[in-house]
Amino acid sequence: ASRERLIFNAAVIFLSLNALNLLPLYPFDGGRFMSELLFIRNKYFELIFKILAVSAFIIGAVKLQDFILGVIGTGLLLSVSTSYKLGALSEEIKEKLDRKFEGRLLDQKNQVLNVNISGLLGRFHDPRGERIYQNLADDLWDRLKYIPPGLSETIMLSLGYFIPWLMVISFVIYGSLQN
Question: What pTM was computed for the model?
Fold first, then answer.
């Protein structure tokens, strides 16, 4: 019986780690998924989502006295302003150019490149290096190309996200009741 117990405990540990990664907190995979599915559609939704994630990490760091959670929360806090600025700039460019964005940024016409670059320069006066500026340009372009899923797709994807969560939670609860 001890071998089965060891296998069960290992399964619970691996499922718990996977569940942690799937938490709907940015920057975990679950947070990125929820951001792409729901929050990136609107700069205010994204802002609130990231502030809630920062709060969860900081509270968790204090309550659990965990340095790593504090570092993650602080890093997220530092990225909130950048995310909001990129979201606002993306919305402005979409309104200004009123077109569908696709393909690679460098393959675009001069008008699109000029609007993107001038918008970035206007929002980020000192991007602290070429690599960071390139990351900002890539993030902005991804936001411009983003087409959110429709209502039925959002519901199906949400179910695909939450049903496994419920399975993991019930498995962990069942395992703890067996002890």
Answer: 0.74
